[in-house]
Amino acid sequence: MLRKLALPLLLSTVLCAAAQAQNLSPTEQRITAGVQAWQPQAIELLERSARINSGTLNLAGVRATGDVFRAELDKLGFKTAWIDMPKEMGRAGHLVATRTGKKGKRLLLLGHLDTVFERSAPGPLWQREGDSARGQGVSDMKGGNVIVIAALRALQRAGLLEDTTISILFTGDEEDAGYPREVSRRDMVELAKRSDVALSFEAALGKDGQPMATVGRRATAGFDLDITGRQGHSMSVFGVNGYGAIYEAARILDGFRREVVEPGLTFNPGVILGGTEVAFDEANASGTAAGKTNVIANRVTVRADLRYLDYAQRDRAQARMRAIVEQHLPGTDAKITFRDSYPPMAVTPGNLALLARYSQASVDAGLGMVGMVPPESRGAGDIQFVAPLIDSLDGLGAGGSGAHGPDERVDLKSLESSAIRAALLIYRLTR
Questions:
Q1: Is-contact 264 218, C-beta < 8 A?
Q2: What pLDDT digit, counting tens, does each position of 159-214 carry?
Q3: Which tens digit of pLDDT belongs to each residue from 69-78?
Q4: Are 175 and 114 in contact, with CB atoms under 8 Å apart?
Q5: Could you say which of 3.30.300.130, 3.40.710.10, 1.10.3720.10, 3.30.70.360 is the CATH number of the domain covering 219-342?
Q6: Could you tell me the fold of the domain covering 11-217+345-429?
């Protein structure tokens, strides 16, 4: 991670440079015009894809959504394929498209076909409301997929895809990545190893009308606390039978809250069960607990979320947490186990340089500067699996609101503006 004081200075430097607008070249003007001319078809493509329910566990729906975008990529001259996942993983697989050349940077473009909305989810699939539309996954992230197609189509119509190396991966399980991750993200990692830059089209965030992109995302991880104590009559608590498992759990968690404090670091105990009988169902994240007020609890189970900016922060936090756990109250014992899930997308000079180029493209097109989303303000995303390998930028997708809820909406005008930014960035990176 960049030093805390150096990051604002570096970010200010690169964005100020991007603010110095240039005129678009005649070629770039043709790219922009191509995006604008196709805006009605972009909205129609979004509607077609949105009308297919593609919740992660609706495997047929994910495949059908993939077919919609595969047909568009075939028209653009990409070599397309569907990558199946092992049946036991319960995931539909991924759509991959590639073309190979010798010009400029080798790009990896990321999207996803699945949504959080399974077949029984409330809310419309598609409902047009003037310059916006309401529907399942319209901004997260079928709108982003459409932006990929719109940008590439403008470049193809201008003859600018020839001799470029661009790989596209639309995953089928971004909202609930399949296990083991070494399998479900293997193809993505392999494509990243053959690329120089990754661009992800997750929904764009805005602040006071300013578009914002993502140069960093915190890792998602977790920890398990398993605590034991001496069962006995409550009259002997604090005495011969010690403090019991529940007091030990309270001590540990409050110690984390008071002593493991860093900017960007969070930990959340989402489930806690305590008593003399505890059963936790890992697969369904549910459980039961039983006990009596006159009996000292002998067991506590805690399952928690842990998020960090980079591995150095993770290692510091884990060391301090282990030290707190080991300071047992009399008559108790405790064990902490850490689980990694999504790796961090650290804020790097390379990522910031990408943001500067993206912002410059936006300024040149008359669309204003692009700001930086604080890393702690974004959840997990596919780009985190490739960011440790290559320079990466996320948030190039559609604007909207209410993601993951029955009122999810997309700003249809953002399809055009985001596609213009993306097309110009891709063009400049591949020269």
A1: yes
A2: 999 999 999 999 999 999 999 999 999 999 999 999 999 999 999 877 667 899 99
A3: 999 999 999 9
A4: yes
A5: 3.30.70.360
A6: Aminopeptidase (3.40.630)
Pairing of strands 299-308, 210-213: unpaired
Cα separations in angstroms, 74 against 66, 80, 118, 192: 12, 7, 28, 22
Token representation of residue 190: 């392999």
The domain spans of the chain are: 11-217+345-429, 219-342
203 contacts 116 by C-beta, under 8 angstroms: no
Backbone φ and ψ for 186, nearest 5 degrees, come out as -60, -45
Residues 208 and 365 sit within 8 Å (Cβ to Cβ)? no
